[in-house]
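Slack export, channel: ligand-projects

TW: morning all. Re-posting the request from yesterday since it got buried. We need the structure predicted with the small molecule present, not the apo form. The ligand is zinc ion; the SMILES is in the block with the sequence. No rush, but it would help planning for next week.
GE: picking it up
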Amino acid sequence: MLPSALLRPLAALALAFGCAAALNAAAPHRIMLLTGQSNPYHDWAKSAPVVRDILAQTGLFAVDVVTTPPKGADMSGFAPKFAGYAAVVMVYEGAEFPEATKAAFVDYMKKGGGLVVVHDSNNAFPFWPEWNEMIGVGGWGFKPDGGIGARTEKWGPKIRWRDGKMVLDSSTPGNASHPPRHDFTLVTRAPDHPIMRGLPAAWLHANDEIYSHLRGPAKNVTVLATAQPDKGKYPTSSGEHEPMLMTIAYGQGRVFHTTLGHVAPKDTGPHRSIQCAGFIVTLQRGTEWAATGKVTQKVPADFPTADQVSVRAP
Ligand SMILES: [Zn+2]
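GE: finished. pasting the full token output, ligand included:
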């Protein structure tokens, strides 16, 4: 038997280590919310504060909002320090970053960084090859002459879900489009992925755009959920199971890509698309996964069901 005089310091040591471990577990993950420009169809100034609050609500993240210079302003000094952040959440579709900033971001991601791509952020940077690899597939994008629709067939295939699996479609024509905003069903395609574990097999998402015919390199993509526009109601829609939630492996980095989250400049709120509990919960879980590779959050009771949307108060 050890004398109690010897046991006491051992117990104190164990307690100290225990406390340190507990403190580490509770330390929030540093997240950079990068925003500041949108195309004419979206409004970062409306959606980014909601995204910031959604992330902060979890208690898991310390969110720094990094705002680029405004549209049309000189971007040459834009050089945020990515290192040290567990993940970068992009609510951004605007001017190209300076080359040094792009290189720093690629380096950050290749070494194990995290990226979350929200809705029209997948329209950004059509001529940045590494970005296209990070997002898997993207939509529209501006050409050098100012016209919209840079992401053509040349950018790569579309992702389709056919016969129970993901396939790449390089043969059918068509570039990004979407039916008008409406409530639609998301179908879970990777129920064992940490982001999706415990979510319903199908759930109704509120008032959003089904991004369709997205194109890109589509490398190292895992489709988490799809949605299928109703060709009966929307005759010009793809009618395909479009990828809505995805993950992409890029170097050692992890990317969570949600195509959900449309907010238009003229919208006055409530913004049902981003106040949908399904959008909120998948963004929170996807951000934790991008930051850490794990998801510790429980699925809340107000998650939408197959026939009922669930929109939270702002
Ligand atoms: Zn949109």
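GE: first-pass observations. Confidence is low (pLDDT under 50) at residues 1-24. The chain has six helices and eleven strands.
TW: perfect, thank you
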